[in-house]
């Protein structure tokens, strides 16, 4: 193994086991869980979430967006303006048409069903609360998931309210939380599908076919082509390990029965598309309330799970985010590493970059030069001789591998 740049904590080559980098930056965002994160180009945008302080939930400032350039290894903080949403956790976020959209979530008052967006590419970071013109918004909820397809956002599941007037005991799409029976509004888990069209500012509910998954929250979801996948999650006292697929054109549900061993039931985990036919699962909370650090690959064609060996087994994560990056990397940020008596503790603020596939030759050359340039004065002097495209890329990567100030001589 090559000697690593001083500010990179760990790196293992190849995907089998996975290659990972845990990065330090002089400016770091506060630790958090239950936040939202999306990737655009080489930038990871992080908003919201919470921390636990002396057993109490403290929500992170909602007028801040943290941006991580994972090619340079640098964090920046941007203050936002406009119709800033309240500080929340458990929101469902996605990136569409240069905007971050967030829906739902939970704050000091409770769950919400409002939707906000902010342009992440114009440099202004101005929030806008969206008032829909058509249809009805879903009821208030958090810990839901979404898929982005054909210019629309499709939301699934979550935990939230159901007005008594709207509840039908025969309705299989809502499971009541027994603790809510004494209130005017019922609370529980759902398996509803709602579509939001940003261009029309409209809400709608598709007529789905097939056998829908059981209601749930704190599950994981990902989009592959025209299909949306969900995995695991929690309802009442049950943690699930199942995986389902919704065809986003025919709106037909199907359950995928694994052809091999599969991960145990869990909640607050993530799955991420890492190829045209592969999903990657990481972490979560187990049935015995233990944070998990295992990682799995699922082949949607063969229907087989495969556990992946890795070097960070001592770093469990739950209620973190995992975003697809360049060259099929996965950028994992934040989350909790402990869960004691229903309290999330040990919140994290590190960014782990997981290499999921062999890199193309250009990326390999770029990384090699960037890693070695700081210890090779001759190579540094020869950098201007590189072709412009390669020089620009290498300059970004050398910033990533630059020794920290207190380690430079």
Describe this protein's structure:
The protein has 409 residues and is mainly beta. The protein has three helices and 32 strands. The protein has helices at 361-372, 377-382, 388-400, and strands at residues 19-23, 36-40, 43-47, 50-53, 56-59, 64-69, 74-79, 81-82, 92-96, 99-103, 115-119, 126-129, 141-142, 145-149, 152-163, 174-176, 185-197, 202-204, 220-224, 227-235, 238-247, 253-256, 266-267, 270-275, 278-286, 291-299, 304-307, 321-324, 330-333, 336-340, 343-347, 351-355. Strands 13, 14, 15, 16, 17 and 18 form a six-stranded antiparallel sheet that branches. A hairpin with a 4-residue loop joins β6 and β7. α1 (361-372) crosses α3. The two termini are 24 Å apart. The model is unreliable at 1-24 and 405-409 (pLDDT under 50).
Secondary structure layout plus pairing:
Blueprint: E1 19-23, E2 36-40, E3 43-47, E4 50-53, E5 56-59, E6 64-69, E7 74-79, E8 81-82, E9 92-96, E10 99-103, E11 115-119, E12 126-129, E13 141-142, E14 145-149, E15 152-163, E16 174-176, E17 185-197, E18 202-204, E19 220-224, E20 227-235, E21 238-247, E22 253-256, E23 266-267, E24 270-275, E25 278-286, E26 291-299, E27 304-307, E28 321-324, E29 330-333, E30 336-340, E31 343-347, E32 351-355, H1 361-372, H2 377-382, H3 388-400
Parallel strand pairs: 8-12
Antiparallel strand pairs: 1-32, 2-3, 3-6, 4-5, 6-7, 9-10, 10-11, 11-12, 13-15, 14-15, 15-17, 16-17, 17-18, 19-20, 20-21, 21-22, 23-25, 24-25, 25-26, 26-27, 28-29, 29-32, 30-31
